[in-house]
């Protein structure tokens, strides 16, 4: 296999997550040097020299449009917070869908190189949900043929960073701080300025093949020591008490209450502190000439910058604030992970689903499937459909992703969305037979209390029954 020719970047760079903590800083640092395309659900105001494009990463169609004309792309997205009024499924699966859409769209747009900022991955067999998700995203981004340079970092210290905000708030609010046994795990923080310098260096030195690098400053410490040093730097006297608790059970909810951060964000991060996250080497930083700002200097600078913003009336956005969520306040997003039998594809799964549904619902509903694989649900002895699913032939050329548009029925609200039509999709991800079945941009007609207790539960039961049925099928003959 021949390597693609090397190239020196000069074209546009698209930043997914450009409205976030690292994304805003990176866009600002690149503006004026390169054409910068910022991708965001709701583009922010006040950025010069950045071309903002509205982009919901759950919509493959919108990501394809957003990446047009980009030579390189930076992926800075996490999906731990809810992205709809009702979400069913694990954040790891939401992350996978976004990463898979980005990888597919980047390949179609002929993007030459992707830079991804993920998490340090310890050499341990059982990873936390958060770290396992970071690794899956890295693998998924590289699965469609575009070379990926992955930077793996622990805590990033900078103004507005969620991890920094949480441990700073914890230290400032509590005179006595309990520390579980997991607080003795090691971490190796890195300053935001160093992360930005390394991201820029990777864009300026694009790789021909996918590769991951650990990044971090020289300071290695326990999480308890991190809190103690932060208290000293902020000049507050705190007492740190070890508590005889193994694991992190209950600490996610407690930390959420103390800091005000959403439990959906805090819980996965807290689970990860059971792992020591330390760099294996500093080869990339040595090549880039970025040794790393010391921890104490990074904390002082980040705290001073946050205080300056507050004094100027530009308060750092609260951890709970998600202004784009109002765009999806009436939506449902439901994603279930299933095992795809060996040798099978998403197209096969979609066909099997259409054939299986009438048998599953034979006593409760009438499910009709026509010769074009369109599906209609209705009650017995009635003509009015409850739901109508149209098989999207024009979007289903690839066997690895299949889509049914939700086109009507008494249970579906008719809406026109920039992110795409309401849809049910089947997609293959990773390389070990993982199938994700998801509903996106769907707005029910039932009132939310009724929907939550009826249709939403029925959908989960159907998906779980279908997953069990698929797992019992014989593999295809060779």
Structure description:
Helices cover 35% and strands 22% of the residues. The strands form 5 sheets. The protein has an 8-stranded mixed sheet, sandwiched between helices. α1 (21-30) links the parallel β1 (12-16) and β2. The chain has 2 domains: 12-324, NAD(P)-binding Rossmann-like Domain (Rossmann fold, 3-Layer(aba) Sandwich), CATH 3.40.50; 333-471, 2-Layer Sandwich (Alpha-D-Glucose-1,6-Bisphosphate, Chain A, domain 4), CATH 3.30.530. It has 478 residues and is an alpha/beta fold. It has 14 helices and 21 strands. The model is unreliable at 1-6 (pLDDT under 50). It is globular. It starts with 11 loop residues before the first strand and ends in a 7-residue tail after the last helix.
What composes the largest sheet? Answer: 8 strands, mixed
Strand order of the largest sheet: 5-15-21-20-19-18-17-16
Low-confidence stretches: 1-6
The rough form would be described as: globular
Class inferred from helices and paired strands:
alpha/beta
Task: Count every beta strand, where a strand is a DSSP E run of 2 or more residues.
Answer: 21
For the record, the count of structural domains works out to 2
Rg from Cα: 24 Å
Q: What labels would you give this structure?
A:
Alpha-D-Glucose-1,6-Bisphosphate, Chain A, domain 4, alpha/beta, disordered N terminus, Rossmann fold, 21 strands, 8-stranded mixed β-sheet, 2 domains, globular, single chain, 478 residues, 22% strand, 7-stranded parallel β-sheet, 35% helix
């Amino acid at each position: 296999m021949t390597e693609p020719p090397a190239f020196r970047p000069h074209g546009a760079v698209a930043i997914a997550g450009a409205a976030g903590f690292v994304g805003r800083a990176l866009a600002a640092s690149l503006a004026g040097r390169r054409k910068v395309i910022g991708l965001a659900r709701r583009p922010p105001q006040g950025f010069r020299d950045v071309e903002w494009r509205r982009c919901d990463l759950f919509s493959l169609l919108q990501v394809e449009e957003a990446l047009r004309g980009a030579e390189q792309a930076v992926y800075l997205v996490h999906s731990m917070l809810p992205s709809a009024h009702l979400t069913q499924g694990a954040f790891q699966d939401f992350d996978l869908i976004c990463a898979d859409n980005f990888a597919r769209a980047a390949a179609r747009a002929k993007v030459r190189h992707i830079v991804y900022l993920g998490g340090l991955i310890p050499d341990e067999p059982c990873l936390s949900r958060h770290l396992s998700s970071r690794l899956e995203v890295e693998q998924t981004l590289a699965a469609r043929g575009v070379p990926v340079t992955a930077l793996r970092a622990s805590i990033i210290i900078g103004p507005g960073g969620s991890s920094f905000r949480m441990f700073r708030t914890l230290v400032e609010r509590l005179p006595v701080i309990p520390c579980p046994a997991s607080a003795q795990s090691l971490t190796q923080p890195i300053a935001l300025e160093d992360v930005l310098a390394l991201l820029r260096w990777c864009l300026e030195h694009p790789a021909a093949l996918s590769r991951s690098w650990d990044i971090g400053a020289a300071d290695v410490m326990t999480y308890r020591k991190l809190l103690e040093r932060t208290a000293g730097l902020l000049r507050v006297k705190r007492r740190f008490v070890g508590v005889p608790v193994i694991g992190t059970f209950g600490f996610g909810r407690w930390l959420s209450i103390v800091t005000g951060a959403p439990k959906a964000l805090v819980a996965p991060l807290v689970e990860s502190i059971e792992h020591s996250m330390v760099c294996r080497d500093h080869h990339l930083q040595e090549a880039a000439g970025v040794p790393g700002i010391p921890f104490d200097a990074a904390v002082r600078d980040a705290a001073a910058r946050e205080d300056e913003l507050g004094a100027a009336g530009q308060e750092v956005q609260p951890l709970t604030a998600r202004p784009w969520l109002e765009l999806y306040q009436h939506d449902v997003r439901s994603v279930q992970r299933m095992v795809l039998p060996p040798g099978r594809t998403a197209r096969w799964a979609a066909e099997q689903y259409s054939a299986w549904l009438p048998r599953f619902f034979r006593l409760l509903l009438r499910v009709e499937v026509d010769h074009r694989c369109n599906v209609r649900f209705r009650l017995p002895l009635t003509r009015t459909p409850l739901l109508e699913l149209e098989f999207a032939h024009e979007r289903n050329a690839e066997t690895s992703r299949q889509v049914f548009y939700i086109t009507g029925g008494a249970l579906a609200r008719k809406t026109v969305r920039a992110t795409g039509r309401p849809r049910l999709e089947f997609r293959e991800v990773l390389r070990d037979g993982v199938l994700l079945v998801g509903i996106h941009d769907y707005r029910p007609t039932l009132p939310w209390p009724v929907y939550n207790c009826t249709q939403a539960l029925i959908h989960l039961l159907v998906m779980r029954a279908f997953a069990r049925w698929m797992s019992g099928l014989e593999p295809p003959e060779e």
